[in-house]
What we know:
Distance between the termini: 23 Å
Radius of gyration: 21 Å
Structural class: mainly beta
Number of helices: 1
Strand order of the largest sheet: 1-23-20-25-18-17-16
Amino acid sequence: MTTSNVPRVLVRAGERGPDFPSGHPYNPSAEVHGWLLSRPAGLARIAVNAAFLRPGKESAIFHVHYREEEWMYVLSGRGIAEVDGAEHGVGPGDFLGFAPGVGHHLRNPSGEELHYLVGGEVIADVEVGDFPKVRRRAVFYRSRFAVYPMDAEVPFMPPEAEQALAALLGSPPVVEPARALVRAADHGEPRRYQHAENPRSETHVVQLSRTAGLRRVAVNLARVPAGRESYVFHLHHAQEEWMYVLSGRGIAEVGEAEHEVAPGDFLGFPAGGPAHHLRNPSGEDLVYLSGGDAFGGVEVVDYPRASKRKVWLDSRRTIVYPLEP
């Protein structure tokens, strides 16, 4: 049996290799350095990368996605986040969520490096992105893309037909603007979670992505106190999961193996396994970001050590079965 298709799962901070730079053809100040995290760990639908901006540099260009949900979490340094028509100073612990239609950009006018995590959905089929300040629109279809001047748009039907079609479809629902920026000082009180199958489970969780208006991508800030454990040894059959250690040390159980994890380490758990769990045997809190596909619809979760399988029919109804040996 070969292992070429076996996910790496654990991407240690000290084993990422050299950072790679990227720019943007429409912004000469764009220069992002970083590392891929989720892809080496075997995730396909969720992207998570570590990045930094050197002083005076910017990330890509001010842009808007029509389908993709994106987010950023500041690890260290300070910068300016441009969100739609406003600018916000951001620093360590600040989270930004960009729902479809929210224009955004990040600059580093400070004298130190700005380090952050950036992630979102992997749109594998069709996506459209606008660069409003340079009046360009990019259309992506799988591995192909084309860029058009916005001013080159041509009418497809007479104006009266457009109006008739709009009247037939009805007005779009009014949606309250997303909060977008969730500052570290405004995280609020975390919720305490314990898993019924594990008496040592105790995790304190702050939901970041939902507060920022994201619905399909989940990002949470979690803390496991000294001597406690996260949830229970489990695997998802549909959902992709990941975690990134911010502070403290712990033991990650992945399949039959155990790995000590420390700040900067990333773990990705593809759908279908391997089963995983997190313990904190140290004398200090273990703090990490975790996320994946936002829960919804149908999911199946196995608890191998408890010999149980839980079937989620939606966010409220569940059925538990014995797990066949």
